[in-house]
Amino acid sequence: MPWLGFGTYKADDKNSIVEVVKEALKIGYRHIDTAPFYNTEEGVGIAIKESKISREEIFLVSKVWNSDQGYEKTLQAFQTTIKKLGTNYLDLYLIHWPQPLSKETWKALEKLYKEGYIKAIGVSNFTTEQLEKLFQSIEILPMVNQVEFHPYLVQNNLIEFCKKHNIQLEAWSPLMRGKVFEIPLLKELSNKYKKTISQIVLRWDLQMGIVTIPKSTSPSRIKENADLFDFEISKEDIDKIKKLNINFRIGMDPYKVFQGQIIKD
Fold first, then answer.
1. Fold classified for 6-258
2. Residues acting as catalytic residues
3. How many Cβ atoms are within 10 Å of 188's Cβ, its own excluded?
């Protein structure tokens, strides 16, 4: 699983996402994250095909949406997803949000994993408590937990829990949908390291041991976000960024989604 991925949430339209993903692949991204909720699976599939890059070189991720959860519905949803993506397997398939039917959904993921249709299975937006409940009746532990993670939402307890159970944490919304650019400390570190604020935050993710999937539609930003491997942030500055945590969420609270509140975004 490449440490740096490319997110496709909130792309403008199918034509836009095709060009954006092709640009990301051209720059060198090989980890592409999509989901039915994003309405980008078809565009991602077209982009991969038109890029002429071997499918085996790309780490392709999608998710099962809330209304598709449950054993049989998940199996059906998976078939729809791979058809839209123009592939016959996924590298990673996630439960998008914790739901009352997540245990049944997980059984379907285990079946697909054992049959070789998915190389790795995981969850998204699961808290420590929700993971513990899932563990009670499953055979295979999640391999990944994709969660909201950024300087204002560090979730140290979740980091430690996932490390203990060998679950790789992955960050969505690592740049807080642009709000990182307003944080004075990050401006200081940008000047200190001669790197952009985006690069500081994304490099911090990697040094924290978190896979990160920034999203942009700008070719220059897509390239900038990938330029992370020629510098290192000091431990002291890593800790300073960690201390920015105020448990602030850009997206929905997993407990509220579990209770059936509608995701508005």
1. TIM Barrel (3.20.20)
2. 38
3. 13
